[in-house]
Write a structure and sequence with these properties.
It contains 15 helices and 14 strands. The chain is of the alpha/beta class. α1 links the parallel β2 and β3. The longest helix is centred in the first third of the chain and has 18 residues. Bound molecules: zinc ion. The site of zinc ion (ZN) has 8 residues, from loops.
């Protein structure tokens, strides 16, 4: 069965950039846009041109430089916004105007101070204007998930008739639940006239930690575009994280038989680049791209990983562009990982020697969080004194290889010890240690 293709709409440069501490200048936006292009996203929302001169300039520069993906620009449902967006976009190979207008009663009453009838007319007129400038028009009823369903259908009918080609359904305040959001998408498919000619899109926020779950529920219900950001940055708790949506579909095609154009091995480089540009670090336990996403410390996990990475990894680090899995030497580590680390440093020990080093390692690891290379070398020296034996030094080439691997990774992350897991070393069953269990 052929898998349905999901359009990946990246809004890191627009919604993402609106998050505190994440603003970027034109050059930085261009750098990121190039990486988004390498990543293979289908649409780059490059900015909100009416918002500032900088936003206008960034959209214009990206439209002129990045030619493969669709370049979108945001506009409120007002003529000056739409005209400004078009000015910034018109040099693009594939431009898209993205018009939004709130439709929930709470937004109409308190924010916009307009009636439902005025909202309907404004939505229709602004889409008509956008359509007169650009063939590709996306419309978003802001706060859709808190909008009266009947009224939402009326507005969507009107904008489809006016020429919208994508209907984006935003859970602007991150309020929806997955099943509920799926039902909303389904109701739109059933109730909006001409829906078969337009693409339904999901735009989810993460206020309850459900942005990715809601996006996946929307896809299962028939949405064929997802709006997301690198590292899930965005207003408040952020947007749906692109890396999580893409990898959920890639790891579980049995439940989500969909494809994207994303080159997943570019996900980690994109995450790192964004973090470098904004200075906002990725949370260590962030799914897919966090520092600890492929790190293993618990002894039983490390032992399993050394036997077969599939024991504790559902995707390989390489598949998302992470160089290697990491076995972190800490108090939860076992003998197997410790022995391997010693080997990488050029030392090989028999069982009795390794027992002695391990005993000292456990005492030390209880006091400090990460055992680093120089600690390990000290332990080896001390153990020499006790056992009265000189550890065997590996053949030069092996020692050099071990050192090289270590120094390469230690430069970037001094407290983590990388161990390449793709060629498991000899395993000694009698040296297993499951002191700290699962
Ligand atoms: Zn948003």
């Amino acid at each position: 069965m052929e898998r349905a293709r999901i359009t990946v709409f990246d809004t890191t440069l627009r919604d993402g950039e609106q998050s505190p501490g994440c603003s970027m200048n034109v050059q930085e936006k261009l750098r990121l846009a190039h990486q988004l292009d390498r990543l293979g996203v289908d649409v780059i929302e490059a900015g909100f041109p009416i918002a500032s001169e900088g936003d206008f300039a960034a959209v214009q520069a990206i439209a002129a430089t990045i030619r493969r993906p669709i370049i979108a620009a945001l506009a409120r449902a007002y003529a000056p916004d739409i005209e400004r967006a078009w000015q910034a976009l018109k040099g693009a190979a594939r431009p898209r105007i993205h018009v939004f207008l709130a439709t929930s009663d709470i937004h109409l009453q308190y924010k916009l101070k307009i009636s439902r009838q005025q909202c309907l007319e404004q939505a229709r007129d602004s889409v008509r204007l956008a359509k007169s400038l650009c063939a590709d028009v996306e419309f978003s009823p802001e706060d859709a998930t808190r909008t009266d369903h009947e009224f939402l259908h009326v507005v969507l009918n009107a904008v489809v008739e006016a020429g919208a080609t994508t209907l984006n359904i935003p859970d602007t305040v991150g309020y929806s639940m997955p099943a509920e959001f799926g039902e909303l998408i389904q109701s739109i498919r059933q109730r909006v006239r001409g829906i078969e000619k337009v693409v339904i899109s999901a735009h989810c926020h993460n206020d309850l930690g459900l942005a990715v779950a809601n996006s996946l529920a929307a896809i299962a219900a028939g949405a064929r575009q997802v709006e997301c950001t690198i590292n899930g940055i965005g207003e408040r708790a952020g947007n749906a994280s692109m890396e999580e949506i893409v990898m959920a579909m890639r790891v579980r095609p049995d439940r989500y038989p969909y494809e994207t154009g994303v080159a997943s091995e570019q996900l980690f480089p994109a995450s790192q680049l964004l973090s470098e540009i904004t200075g906002v670090p990725v949370q260590p336990n962030k799914a897919v791209t966090g520092r600890n996403a492929f790190a293993h410390e618990a002894g039983i996990h490390q032992d399993g990983m050394l036997k077969n990475p599939l024991t504790y990894e559902i995707m390989t680090p390489h598949s998302v562009g992470v160089p290697d899995s990491k076995l972190v030497l800490g108090k939860h580590s076992g003998r197997h990982a410790l022995g391997l680390r010693c080997e990488q440093l050029g030392f090989q020990f028999d069982r009795r020697e390794l027992d002695e080093i391990y005993r000292r390692f456990v005492v030390l690891a209880d006091k400090i969080k990460h055992v680093e290379e120089h600690h390990l070398l000290e332990l080896i020296q001390q153990a020499r004194g006790v056992t009265g034996r000189v550890p065997t030094l590996h053949a030069d080439s092996a020692a050099v290889a071990g050192q090289k691997r270590f120094s390469k990774t230690s430069a970037a992350r001094p407290t983590e010890l990388n161990i390449t897991l793709h060629s498991p070393a000899d395993h000694h069953a009698d040296q297993e240690d499951y002191l700290w269990g699962v």
